Amino acid sequence: MNKYTLALALILVALATTDARCNRQCRSRDRSPSVCIREAGTTNMCRRIRECRMREENCRRGMLGQPNLRQTSLIRCRKIKMDSRGRCASKLIKDVKNVHLCNKMRCDEKRIVSCYRSDANRCRLMTNCQARRINCMRDSWNQIMITRRRGCRGMKLGEGPQVCRK
To answer: Which of 6, 19, 39, 71 is least surrounded, with the fewest CB atoms within 10 Å of its CB?
Structure first.
C-alpha cells in the first residue's frame, strides 16, 4: 500500500513542477480567440478551446514528453460550444460561400501579432485573426501553425511568406 501511495505522490509532484515551469497564458479578462482541436486517438471528436489554453496545454504536454495538440479548421467546431468537446462537423466543400464565412469570422483580438509557419517551412508575421481566417479556408492537413517569434525575425506585418529564420 505504501508503494502505491509513494507512486501517487511522485506523480502529483511531477505534475505540480510541470505546471510551475509553464507560464500561465490565460487570464480571466483576456478574450483569446477560440481554436478547434481534433483529438488524437479518436475517430471524430473535436474540442473547442481558447488559443491561450491550447498554448498552456502544449507546454505541459511538452514537459511530459507527449505530442503537442494541433489545431484544425474552425469550421469543424462550428457546432461545439466554447470549452467543450463534441463530434467534429463534416468538412464543407470549399466554395465561394465558405470563403465568405471565413472572411466574416469575428475577431475580438485583432492586434495580437504572432509568427506562423507552414509545412513548407515558410514563416509569416500576421495577426491571430488573419491566421484564423487563412486556416479556415485550408484543409486540416495544410494548416499554418504558430511558432517561435524568432522564426519571423526581421519580418514586418503584412509581408509575404519567407523562409523561417533559425
So the answer is: 6
Q: What is the DSSP letter of 164?
A: P
Residues 138 and 83 in one domain: no
Based on the number of CB atoms within 10 Å of its own CB, is 137 exposed (0-12), middle (13-18) or buried (19 or more)? middle
Q: With CA atoms as reference, report the closest residue to 70 among 145, 152, 154, 1.
A: 145
∠ Cα 100 110 94 (to 5°): 20
Provide the residue type at 7 as one letter.
A
For residue 87, which phi and psi values (nearest 5 degrees)? Answer: -70, 135
Residue 3 neighbours by CB under 8 Å, 6+ apart: none
pTM beyond 0.85: the answer is no
Categorize the per-residue pLDDT at 92 as very low, low, confident or very high, splitting at 50, 70 and 90. Answer: low
Per DSSP, the residues of 110-163 read: -S-EEEEE-TTSEEEEEEHHHHHHHHHHS-GGG--EEE-GGGGTT--TTPPPEE
The reply to whether 122 falls in a domain is: yes
